[in-house]
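re: ur question from yesterday

yeah so i grabbed the chain u mentioned. its 203 aa long if i counted rite. heres the sequnce exactly as i have it in my notes:
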Amino acid sequence: MASKTINPILKQVLELGPTVAFFILYLRIRDETFTLGGTEYTGFIVAALVFVPILLVAMGILWMLTGKLSRMQVFTAFMVIFFGGLTAYFNDERFFKMKTTIVYGVMAGLLGIGLLRGQSYLKYVMEEFLPMEHEGWMIFTRRICYMFAALAVANEIIWRTQSTDLWVKIETFAFPAVLFIFLWVQIIGLQRFLIEEPETPKD
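ran it thru and got these structure tokens back, copy pasting raw so excuse formatting
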């Protein structure tokens, strides 16, 4: 299926909506206990399980509208399904919280492997939107690698030492905001490496 362009606002809603829906649902049922199949589940676990189909539906709509999904989106969906399943099977919310650590850790590891080989795997994903010289891509990739590693460590510390309420808020808002601001600052700081497309001569 050929890729198509959709309204950027709708794209953001489909990409961020499931996480916001999880946050809202969690706030509404966090103090409740649900009995399913003779087993009691906390509000957090129920919200995490509901998040899985919401994410899959949103991704399905996004795929139908655009004709494509990024490798990161597919990987994230797999991790959500896998750790959501473990969370339900063992009735243990720690598995769902670990998911974030592993996603960030895997991203840091993949980028790190590329750097050791003198390559920027980030370039393969973003070059179409951000044409840049090789040196710029290596600097950018190195910094993003460090950031993913830092977020993985931060998530481990937070979910192991802080309340579930605080973790949900940080997972929903703080981590994405920090990553967005970091990316924005890096792109501005690496302007000197950007490759400008030649101007089309006027008739």
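noticed a couple things. The first helix runs from residue 8 to 29. also Helices lie at 8-29, 43-66, 71-90, 94-116, 121-126, 134-161, 164-189.
anyway ttyl
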